[in-house]
Amino acid sequence: MLNKREYLILVSFTKPEKANYYNKQRYQIEMTFMAIKSNGFVLEQTHHSNTKRIGKLILLIMVAFVWAYKVGIYIPQNIKQITIKKHVRKAKTIFKTGFDYITKCFLNASYISKFNIFEFLSCT
Question: For residues 120 and 75, is the Cβ–Cβ distance under 8 A?
Fold first, then answer.
């Protein structure tokens, strides 16, 4: 979300009418990679070279990512809104909101969750 005095210039050579849509999609992909690489799971620090192990690790990370994302969607809708900072952007991403909540539930034995975080892992 841009401030009233900010401009976003998008250049598109193929479909200018869809440039904003494509930019939003690209941004979502960049945020996903950031969450996987440095802002949550720090995948780059594994130093594995075995492709089978890396494949299993990535699969596990994807399940955890979707879990954190779904919890991050649930929290602002049902528990507490994500704080908006002075620059009119959210203080945390949806992923980081869910990731932090799940982490708090696991690492703080005295914390009582306001909902069952494991229900988001169910396919039913």
Answer: no
Query: What's the whole-model pTM score?
Result: 0.71
CA distances for 71 relative to 30, 43, 48, angstroms: 20, 21, 29
Phi, psi (rounded to 5 degrees) for 96: -65, -35
Asked if 104 and 111 count as a contact pair (C-beta separation under 8 A), the reply is: yes
- Is residue 1's pLDDT more than 70? no
- Give the residue-averaged pLDDT of 80-92: 75
Q: Report yes or no: 36 and 57 within 8 Å, Cβ to Cβ.
A: no
Domain regions of the chain by residue span? 16-121
- pLDDT on residue 75: 92
**Mean pLDDT over residues 33-39, rounded?**
78
Angle at alpha carbon of residue 44, lines to 43 and 46, rounded to 5°: 75
Q: Residue 90: what are its φ and ψ, rounded to 5°?
A: -65, 145
